[in-house]
DNA polymerase I (Ruegeria sediminis), 933 residues
Amino acid sequence: MTTTFGKGCHLHLIDGSAFIFRAYHALPPLTRKSDGLPIGAVSGFCNMLQRYVDGDHGADAPTHLAVIFDKGSHTFRNDLYDQYKANREAMPEDLRPQIPLTRQATEAFNIACKEIEGYEADDIIATLACQARDAGGRVTIVSSDKDLMQLVGDGVEMLDAMKNRRIDRDGVFEKFGVFPERVVDVQALAGDSVDNVPGAPGIGIKTAALLINEFGDLETLLDRADEIKQPKRRQTLIDMRDQIELSKRLVALDTAMPLDFTLDDLEIRDVVPERLMAFLAEMEFRTLSKRIADRLGVEAPVIPDTPAPEQAQEQAEDVPFDASKYECVRDGQALQAWIDRIRERGWVAVDTETTGLNEMIADLVGISLCVEPGEACYIPLTHRQGASDDLFGSDALAEGQMPLDEALTLLKPVLEDPSILKIGQNMKYDAKIFARHGVAVAPIDDTMLMSYAMHGGEHGHGMDTLSERYLGHTPIPIKPLLGSGKSAITFDKVAIDEATAYAAEDADVTLRLWQLFKPQLHRARVTTVYETLERPLVPVLAEMEMHGVKVDRDVLSRMSNAFAQKMAGLEAEIHELAGENFNVGSPAQLGEILFDKMGLEGGKKGKTGKYSTGADVLEDLATEHELPRRVLDWRQLSKLKSTYTDALQTHINPDTGRVHTSYAITGANTGRLASTDPNLQNIPVRTEEGRRIREAFIAEPGNVLVSLDYSQIELRILAHIADIAALKQAFSDGLDIHAMTASEMFDVPLDEMTPEIRRQAKAINFGVIYGISGFGLARNLRIPRAEAQGFIDRYFERFPGIRRYMDDTIAFAKEHGHVQTLFGRKIHTPEINAKGPHAGFAKRAAINAPIQGTAADVIRRAMVRMPKAIEGLPARMLLQVHDELLFEVAEYAVDDTIAAAREVMEGAADPAVKLDVKLTVDAGQGANWAEAH
DNA sequence: GACATCACG
DNA sequence: GACGTACGTGATGTCC
């Protein structure tokens, strides 16, 4: 049915950003009643769209239609001129979360919604308008932006939707004093303070138009500038020629940019009432949904009159916890009743009970649900009957449970329904359990992540902690139910009535926490952090963890044996040297041998009264003695064997043959992830022997491992945050940053640099990131403290911005109780005002957190965008190691994958943050991780 | 379960 | 002037 765009067609192009800002400023700051989400701009946007669709604009009806949005803050204009739009104010905090909703709104109206990374909406509009005009059609641009006026003419008109005023060639002349084809000339001269286009100083639109009309066009004017009578004006045009020509390039729209769609894709489509109503209902627009429903002749959606946040909070506190009210759901009918309530409500708190903590292995035992504080249920599914001493009955299913499949069949549509929010505490766990049963839970909210976004650094984010702190309620502990040690049982052995009280309460607590946190998120100014850096990471990580990484057991096993042999030899030598047998693995025994029996120099250690035998101590002793050297070698092998070659084998999943780590999103205060069970973020790499362990991490046949890692990301971020011109310059010149530092510090030319001097400078660079101290640097470099202090003083002298950054950061922390990353992540520093030795720790942590945290945010953003970027490629993201991402890729697609992933990683800060220093990514590939890294 | 040690960024 | 310090993690083995 598609017609080809051509004569008789009429294309309408709506400037989406203009709509959004108008809507935002025209309306008071409305919030969604149920959860406090700001929605004023979305509401206004929908209103404007509806009015437009109603034809309330006096223009001929379109045959083709699209809403065009900006995407990304960096465009080719920024490359031309780094000050372009530089003085534009940051987007208001309560508008930011509404931007994606306006896209959804457009789609809900079934209107084409277009944006292209790196281009302004104006360029897309210009390109489309030209295409449509060339095809013989007409165009109406719904906008009053003067930057678009250059497009008017030959069937292209503008429409100011607010004033219902059409702008044609004469309208443009009215505004600019010239016709559309000369508008850019006038703009180039007059400049634009809003977009920070410089233009010619002292020349406004009036004068510009006068000049252009006199000389014909800008080029002629500039060529013949010496003919201008007014001396000042003449001089300006002669002196500022470059700036004026640059301005013209900035204001001229790109009418031939690449598009990934055609005019025909914009053919007008009928609205799908159900879809539009679902969106309006989700936004809780009562009046608007009713008005539009009337217009469409359909039933208006019922929007539950949910309590305002403050009331919800009171309710959450008012309703007492009462385990006897929890229902045990044992059949389909009872479950259906709960599902009905969930559908009515639009959200549900969910919790799963399983036989263990490893979600790749644990079996689902039961599910609890909660839709209202105090009202929760537990659905037992695979509890075993009888006590554990019942030798025969313990494996049989207990009575009175629904079959697992039946329960999941009923729940699946709800858990996957995009209009029903699933709320959980650590949802990644539950989502993975459900995923193993073929249920893709979405969309989700996570109280643990909300707490992390609001209270990172203040306290833990486990449910018990949160419940006690924010609900004043101590949940039933799990310990008494499961026991501990050898006699511990799994949850499926817990009696169903006990399980119901425990499990349903967890869902109850989760829902109450959610009702409390949801409105607070916005007040704490962390909605964007939660929505862009926490919540969207859940499905990405779940996917990575479930996919796992292939590990070759035989390689590990062989290495284990080799290590064992070497260790045995070393152990014999150590005993020989010591003159007695002792446990080499016991620091206490080793200390006595070294310092008491052999009488070596090298002190004690405080608290426990034992000798310190750390690597640094042994390293010093090793210059004079054999034994400590042997112990160091033995320890290295012992570590490699026990932690890696042995333990890793036990983590190979028998079903998949792969190792599945688990990432803790809230694991580190700074925003970094933490990897556990096993930790795959500390696989050896620094020593040759250790690195060989990475040879056991392999790809499936026909595939290779690809590793991409950020180069010096923390130092780059430091250079940006502390605004160190010399560092920024060095990065932009692609210099060896440590050598450059050394050269600057010690006045050594780069071509005379020695590895030793560079090593010292490298230590200082890292020291700065860690909150440098004379003592720490002295110990790291093994130099006298005074000398180390001298280095630091000199560093501050050469890079004064560092001192300022440190002082400012500590002052900020003292005043606000937190520091923050460039992306708005808050890291609380409760100890910053402490007295005594604590204070030093807190200060250094405060200095480090914005740097480490910003780097963590950057890679999180890259990870969130990665699935889309590599969509369609035979590639999977497997692991994250703080500044590195590891992929498994079909051999033939390696180059494409590297290109796609690198683009995402290098551009990960955009558009939220414009870094002064570009991020660069190194890539490697190979049959195993040792080769790829 | 605390502590020491050591693997990573 | 004295504190005692590099930042952020997790896993293992010893010893109580």
The two ends of chain A are 53 Å apart (CA to CA).
